[in-house]
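Morning!

As promised:
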Amino acid sequence: MKKIITYGTFDMLHIGHINLLTRAKYRGDYLIVGVTSDDYDRSRGKLNVVQSQEERIKAVSELDIVDEVIIETHKNQKQEDIKKYHIDEFVIGDDWDGYFDYLKEFTEVIYLPRTQGISSTKIRNESVADINFGVVNVEHHSKRFVNELGFVNFTKVTSVYDKNIEANYNELNLLSKAQKFNDYEAFLKSNIDAVYVCGDIASRYQLVKKALLSGKSVLCENPITIRDKELEELFEIAKEKNLLLLWALKTAFAPAFNKLLEEIKKGLIGEIKDIRATFTTLYKQRGFGDEYVKNGATNLLMSYPSLLVNKLAKKHLSVDFFDQRVDGYDVSNVAITRHANQVLGIASVGVEVKSDGNAIISGTEGYAYIPAPWWLTKEFHIRFEDPSKEIKFEFEFAGEGLRYMIAEFVSLVRQKRIESSRLTIDEMIELNKIIVAYNKRKNQSTTNI
Amino acid sequence: MKKLKLGIIGTGRIAKRFIKDAVQNKNIEVQSVFSRNILNVKAFCNENSIPCGFTGFNDFLNSNIDIVYIASPHETHYSYSKECLLKEKHVLCEKPLTLNNDELKELIAIAKEKDIVFLEAIKTAFMPNFLKVLEQVNSGIIGDILEVRATFTKLTTDKRLREYDQQFGGATNELGTYPLLLAVKILGEIDIASFYPIIDNHIDVANRMITTHQNNKIAISTVGIGMKQEGCAVISGTKGYIYIPAPWWLSNEFYIRFEDVNKEIKHTVEHTGNGFSYEIDEFIHLIQQGKKESDLLSHKEISEINRIISIYNLQKQNRTQE
């Protein structure tokens, strides 16, 4: 039996795809199709994919000519698959002519002519409507957001709200002109599909709530709120209105971070016992104002290390805080959380203290070490008592990493989905509980907790 | 100057490594060794060309020795130290000195009364790289120190070893002294200690000791025999931090880092042998100078480290009784 393999994203499956697959199939007896995972596409900078991984796999699986569908998740997988499935021929469209010649070492490589005049890119350009964003407040975060939004296809900023819109609008450096608003109600009524919220933390809850009530999906900067019960209420509204509310914790959407979680869950380091992550930044040195820094290390940063802890240890049973304060706000804090099976989380943050921003996941047989800055995961090491057994993983990571989050948000909005599998509603509520618990305790006692 | 005659108590793993560095010291003559087990005594004497070996403790004490190195099981440190000090032998004793802080206070009092050197064998405290770290901390280059963290794990799978002794074993007793040394050296006295152990079959296979110091400064000291972790140390300040790579307690380098990653400074300070020579030199130096305690590791510091380990042992006892 002659086995053929081919790969692709197969976004918005079209006649060109089917022609190529048919020709591939009739070169042999059995056709395997590798469909790229969302993470893999994003990690190699392909941010214009419209359909989700599940939708793309489903469409390819339903074709009679396809015998087997596999998921392509990493860079060197093709040669692994060729060996694993005893492939006789690797087939790909001739737009890749020459690119895969390195696989000739393992199998026959055939480049087939593509159907003229049709491609996913063309179909997307003709049929996919842009997601129009409204940006709320002009500041450091929204500038960064706008910059990264440029990397995600089929999106644009069409409206901007700010109390001082005339003075601040130009700082955003938008590629195309947007409508300016200093009236939030009017802004929400403008031609927008989704809203990005940043600015003063205390005001975000109201801004998000109004946006949801006006039928807009919301991406909100970290943290959405620091007060009790507000986040739960916002999710209730979002669910009722069938809208997406996503917390802009960029790490959760980084392909390498998700790969890390996947590898750890395979059990390489034995049973997980201790998860620790540190995020400190000297905001004042970076030009942030006193007002921003006075939000405190916990409110500004805790959700990042808590995210890693929560992803691997799930819900916490108890939390202790070890904070240090200057002028009433926390310049540093360590949240120690206990979880089932004696697992401990140590989440450390600081705004006027500098520490090594690494993360370490310790197990009964070894540990994973993610060098600083771990929240922009680019590489990690699995280490054991015997140092020669170290395994190193490296990944591509582009820009500030926001583009992966924006790509996820846009993809979900397009599919009218109200929850991300990379940062679920339950996870966001759990992360928020840590922040709320700290703020409650801080207000109860002005001395040590 | 007359050579000091050394007697060694214990023939285990650490004594075997210690003696390799001890025989290199020109001021020492290894005179005798003591262990309850005659086979161990014979083997140790033969391997290291030691003239006398004993299984009787009084015979050992009377074997014309001036100084003693104690590397026997933890629970025997107190009684051996006490007898040696009462006999006016200078004592260098392995960590933890005792498992009960009152016992340590008694030993320190005896040493003072008898005018004898009593030193804990925490080799890191005397090593040049570590001293350079402390010097850099004190220089203010990383600002005020707000947090210190250090980890020492050694996966030990053989449950028959003394590390798994239900009464005296566990990661805290075995390894706790090292990270606590860094905490106490940099942040000083401890206000509150919180423990987050992992218990497996009544043994703390790992422990996270969070200590708060003056002005709520904190230290996170992690140890493990059933959990593996990066053995690095990080000292965090208001202007930057010091990173000592694994194994930090034996490292010959460290990094000073700032918000601007380009400003990193690397220090390299080499050491010789297994690292024991520095503690031996300090021990001999104190005896020769007629000093009672070390500037590098004072009785107060020794006692503070020991107090935390003692508190943990007390909590462990209470838990067992429940």
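The longest helix of chain A spans residues 425-444.

Hope this helps with the figure draft.
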